[in-house]
Amino acid sequence: YDGPVEVEMMFYIPIPKSWPKAKVESAIENKIYPMHKMDWDNLGKIQCDAMNALVYVDDGQIIRATATKRYSLTPMAHITVSALSDWDF
Questions:
Q1: Which is it for strands 62-72 and 5-14: parallel, antiparallel or unpaired?
Q2: Mean pLDDT of 23-31
């Protein structure tokens, strides 16, 4: 795709194995947020660069992006790329 796009990124960060059970439960319930290491912008850059020439021509086409980090027992990244029309700006 060669037009303008929006990217929504949700990063599920692994919960440290050294944490006590109560802290793990708080992380699962989104009462604790991953605010150290794995900066959202570094995570996003890696994902957006990886989609060059696969999803869009170049990540310079991204005109709107959101990123969220949460702890999870199942680490993963969920990325949604949407084409934008003139009405979306």
A1: parallel
A2: 97
